[in-house]
């Protein structure tokens, strides 16, 4: 085989590899766009109900679920890496997981905000649009074992996708947000 044939094959192989890599990037970007389109409204609604910034809700979900592509997100509807009971071994024999299973993706989001609302520091943070302050509080209360690296990663997601723009409507929250209903908990008026 001559040098010219070798060179042509090498160039062709590099071109094919480049196309494969670019198509993979396109798929990942489309997956992210689909995730954002699906869960932005959920995050904004939960922000309006709870006073937790949508950027925090969505940024953590995107990181912890790999924008919905993780095994936990697909099989357990768990977008936040929350530990708990599941029936994964019944769904996929031989597989086990320590992560909580939810009936739907939205149930995972609702449980996440209910967990944050149960924290001692929630009252002082409610309505604060500063995502970095929320992440610091969550880190200090042990949400992630990755510590400051976790804060850095979530911050990168929030900044990369400009999720902080979703928090602008937090300023227009109504007093109705004080009446938000947590999953499975009674409100202060005794209703369900």
Structural features:
192 residues, mainly alpha, 8 helices, globular, disordered C terminus
Task: Outline the structure in words.
The protein is mostly helical. It is 57% helix and 0% strand. The protein contains eight helices and no strands. The chain has helices at residues 3-50, 54-65, 71-76, 88-91, 105-117, 122-125, 131-140, 148-160. Helix 1 packs across helix 5 (105-117) and helix 7 (131-140) packs antiparallel against helix 8 (148-160). The longest helix is centred in the N-terminal third of the chain and has 48 residues, at 3-50. 27% of the residues are buried.
Question: Could you give a short description of this structure?
Answer:
By secondary structure, the chain is mostly helical. Helix content is 57%, strand content 0%.
Helix segment tally: 8
Low-confidence stretches: 174-192
Largest sheet features: none
Helix content, binned percent = 55-70%
The beta-strand count equals: 0
**Averaging pLDDT over every residue, what do you get?**
83
Structural class: mainly alpha
**Global morphology:** globular
């Amino acid at each position: 085989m001559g040098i010219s044939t070798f060179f042509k094959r090498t160039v062709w192989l590099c071109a094919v590899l480049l196309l494969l890599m670019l198509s993979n990037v396109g798929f990942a970007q489309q997956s992210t766009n689909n995730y954002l389109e699906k869960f932005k409204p959920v995050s904004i609604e939960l922000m309006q109900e709870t006073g937790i910034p949508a950027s925090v809700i969505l940024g953590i979900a995107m990181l912890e679920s790999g924008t919905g592509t993780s095994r936990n997100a697909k099989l357990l509807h768990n977008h936040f890496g929350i530990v708990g009971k599941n029936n994964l071994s019944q769904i996929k024999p031989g597989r086990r997981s320590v992560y909580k299973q939810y009936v739907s993706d939205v149930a995972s989001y609702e449980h996440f905000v209910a967990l944050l609302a149960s924290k001692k520091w929630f009252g002082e943070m409610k309505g604060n649009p500063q995502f970095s302050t929320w992440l610091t509080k969550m880190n200090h209360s042990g949400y992630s074992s990755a510590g400051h690296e976790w804060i850095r990663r979530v911050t990168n997601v929030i900044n990369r996708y400009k999720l902080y723009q979703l928090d602008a409507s937090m300023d227009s929250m109504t007093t109705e947000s004080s009446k938000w209903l947590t999953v499975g908990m009674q409100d202060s008026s005794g209703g369900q």
